[in-house]
Structure formats: structure tokens, C-alpha cells
Amino acid sequence: MDQLNAAREAIQDFTANNESFEPLIKEEILAAVAQWKYIDPQYSIIDTCYLTLMNSLFLDKEIQKLIEKEPEMKLLLTIRLLKHLLALHQRISQLGFTAETAFIKQLRLMADQDFYLFLSEKHHRLRAKLRSLFGDQEYLCSSYKQKIKQQKRKITSSHKKMKQAEIAQQEEIKDLQKRIARANSALQDLEKPKTGLKILGKLDLKTGKWIQDNRPKEQEEKAQLQSLLTDLKEKLKDKNAPLKHQQIQDDIQIAKHKIAQLKQRFCDLLESFLMKKKRAEENRLAQEEVNRCNRELKQMLLSLKETQEQLNAIGLELPLHQLWGYGKGFFLDRGFHLLERYNQLIEQNKQLQEVVNLLGRHREQKKEFEEVTIQKEEQRGTLVLQDGRTEVVGIQRSNDLHSLLSSELALLSTTETENLFYQKFAEKQLTSFQYQAEGYCTETHFYEERLLLPKESPKGPFILAVDTSGSMRGAPEEIAKLLAFAMSKIGLQDQRPVYLISFSVQIECLEISQFARDLPRLVSFLQKSFHGGTDVAPALKAAIKQLEKDNFQKADVLLISDGDFAGLNARDLAEVKAMQAQGTQFNSLIVTRGYHTHGSSYPQLDFCDHIWSCRNDLSEILPLLQENLGKK
What we know:
This protein has 21 helices and 12 strands.
């Protein structure tokens, strides 16, 4: 039971562990191991590397058969599985891949030009690091280098167009400036005063005066020059404005954005390579853990079966789940050969076997009864008359006009279907309700009945007080040890607690309830030599104290001695009587070397319910045991 309790505590620790799986994952893991069935990865939130480990146990035929035979093994196997899951989780958590992650981050933060140089193998150290972390990626680097190079060409071409446009603008500005200068010069020439011969105009012959010429052509030219000059200045003003090159700028930004995208895409590919590398490593670790788990389980199960066979050799048949955690070697170095020798002696001594069986069955015969209320049922029938209409039980074909369905009556509503109604009536084919005919209608009635039934109770425990004084040396010592071992074996076999008290001048107490813990202690007891005086009172006090515990309240006390000790005082005797009043029996088995008589020779044991004695031969007390305890 300690193993099962420890397993339950381990599950609680797994649930409370906040450093392992997420709470939702832990819930699904525990739900999966509770069912112990294959989990389809498509329908589970548990990572596949952990499912690989879990399914390897769920699908193991040997483990499935073992769980079917011993359901308690599932809880113990669950703890083993959780242990390996936590170990795998820890190993996976340590797969940081920090160097790869830092390298990808460095590339993402790198300037576009530096990244292009990296692809062009200008950064030899970084390229070497790429090869060491991600393997040969020359094709990938070359491919992305060409893609970035195309975008860089577009940028270069756009810058060239901008430069050409700026040069053309400067040429136009120079041309305009020249034209403005010529226009200004021509305008100045028109405005300069004339020197030399002066043209006075035409002479009026009648008056003899000169007629002034307004020179309209000159004025017109001046106006044209001024208009031209204004236009040229406006054009010059426009040309002096900086060029926007919006379309070219947009093309450049698009190309730069594509270069940035290519860099990020390259890093994303490295991320995907890293994820694949990590997944491959996780799968490798998972497979290693699967192999380790299977290997450990196979070795443990083999060791448990060897231990089981070894225990069978001493007549102790225990299920594997009670042997969990203890291999064959656990007993080999603890004097296990002594148990084999004692078991052989018991098998050779048929009288001893029958004595032990009678003593072991004694408590089983004390049956208790309890009142149980059970529910019974009774079928009651009710007569149904033929002419009465009771419950509708179906549909039938007939010519009973009182039971027609409304759909049949509807045939009379028109002259076209009326003849059909009469035809079905004549042939008894009208659809009508079917009522229950004459007979019995059964009903179920429930009632309660109280019975006095035997109460199922677990087999009772034993308390053995063994005299280990010097007077018991020899054959009595051998018989006492054989009985102690045989009764302890029954307790271990049937999971019945055994409390062993050895007494001489002092007492030693040993509770035997868990074979793995207590069997070596039993061996230690059997290896001791008997010596010293005898005082039975402390042993009986220890037995009474043990009887007050919950798991020993239904125990009987068997005293094994040669009877060479003083009687109890009044106080100790009163305590024994009080326990006997509660149903506890105190029995004595006296083993002597010489002549003996049953009961009357041992007045110090008058408090005992039964006193049996023998001279080194248990066959002498078999008739008395059969008479007192009853033989099955």
C-alpha cells in the first residue's frame, strides 16, 4: 500500500509542479494515463514528442496484459511514465539553440548593404558561422544575392534617371538665361537714344513743315521683347524649382522595401531550418527517452518476476504491484536463504502446516451479520374486457366505423372518393385504431425487503508474543521461529497485519504489514539466539496497547512459550480481562521438552481462552485445535 500511496503523492506533485508543463497540458496527460489508451496526435494538444513516449507504453502488449491482471499496476506505471515525461521535458527545455537564435537576430538587425555583402561572401567570418550552424547554404545565399542585386540595379537605374533629369534641367536653365540676356540686350538697344543723322520724318509740301513719324514698328518690337522677357523669366523661375521625381522616388522606395523583405525572408527561412533542427533534436531525445523507459521497465518487470518466483519458493505468493521497487537483489543480501530453509521445514512438517492453517482460519470464522434492505419487484396483471376501449396499441385494417382514422372518413367528402370508401369497407381495408383486446395488462410493482446477511469483512490481524528466553533453546526455539515465520507469511500473503513481540527480560516489537520493508526485519528476528530470563507481563501490555489501534482491534493474541514464567499481577490481569470482554481471545501454545498436561499445569495462564501444549511435536495439539477452533 505504501507504493500505491507514494504513487498518488507523486501524481499530486506532478500536478502542483509549475516548472514543467502548462496546466492544460498536465490535465490532458493525466486524463490520458487514466484511460491508458492510444492518443491520436491529430486530436491532442500534447506535443508529438511526448505522445511518442506515452503511446509506446499504451500500445505495449505486455504492459496491457499486466494491467488487466493487476489494475494497481497502472498507477505505478503512471508514475514511471510521468517521471520519464518530466525528464524529457527538462532535456528539451535545455535545447536553447542560443547560438543559432543570436545569429539570426544579428542578420535581422544588419544594414541592407552589409547583408548584401554577407551574401556576396565579403564577411568571411559570418559566412563560416552560417555554415557551422546551418550547414551548407550556398545555393540559398546565391539565390537571395541575385534577387537583391536585381533590386539594387533598379535603385541605381532610378538614381541615374534622376541625375539625367537634373542635368537636362540645368541645360534648360542655361538656355533660358541666355535667351533672357539677349532679350534684355535687344530691349536696351530699342530704348537707347539715337545718335548721328536724325530722321525728321516726311516734309509737308503745302505747309513746308516736317510730319513726325511715331515709329509703330519699333513700339511693337519693344512690346514683343518685353512679353518674351516676362515669359522667359517665368520659365526660369519654374526651372529653378527642385525636381520632385515622385515616380522615381516611389520606385526606389519599392526596391528598398523589397530588399528588406528579402532579408527578412532569408532570416525566416533560417528560422524554419532552426525549427526543423530543433524538432529533429526533440524527436531524437524523445526516442532516446522511449528506449530508456522501455529498457528500464523491461528490466524492472523481469526483476519483479524473478523476485516473485523467489518469493514463491518460500510459499509467499504476492502480486507484482506489491513488489514494485524491489528487485531480486534486494533480498539476496538480507539472509533470504534463511527464509527458504524455514519454508522447506514447514513444507516437510505437515502437522505444522495444519496448525498454522487452523490458527490462520480462526479469525475468519468469526462472521458478523448486518441488516440489508433490498428492493424486489412483482408483476401484477389486470383483466381487460373485450367490449371496452382501453389503450391504443397500434393501427389495423378493418371495417369498424367507430375506430376509423380521420383520413378514411375524408373519403366520404367527395363523390369521386365515396365509392372507394365503400369498396374498402366491404373488403375490411379501412385504416382504424387497434385497441387492446381482452386479456391481462401486466404492471411492475416494487417493494422493499429486509434480510440479515453475513457481513463481508477483511481477514483479521495477528498478534504473536514469542518467548525468546534461554529456556526456549533447542527444539522449542525452532518450533517458535517456524510458527512466527509461518504466521507472518500468512499475514503477508493475505495482507493481514502481524504484530510480533519477542520477550524475555525485555521486549522487542515488530509490525509486519509491508513485505519489502518488514521481511528483512523478520529475517533478523529469525537469526537471533534465544537467551535471558522470562517476563510475560511487558509483552501482554504491548499486545494490549496494539489492540487499541484501529487496524488491530479485531486481532487475537497467540502466546508461544515454554510456560516457564511468573503469573500476572491483578492490574495486568484486569487489562487482559477487559480486552477479552471486547471479543479478543488470548491463546497460548506451550512447547516443552518433557512430559506435559494441557492447561492444568500452567495456572499462570488461566486467563487464556485456550492453552495448547506439546513436546517438540505439533501433531499432539492438532486434535485440540480442531476441537477448539473447528476444522474446515
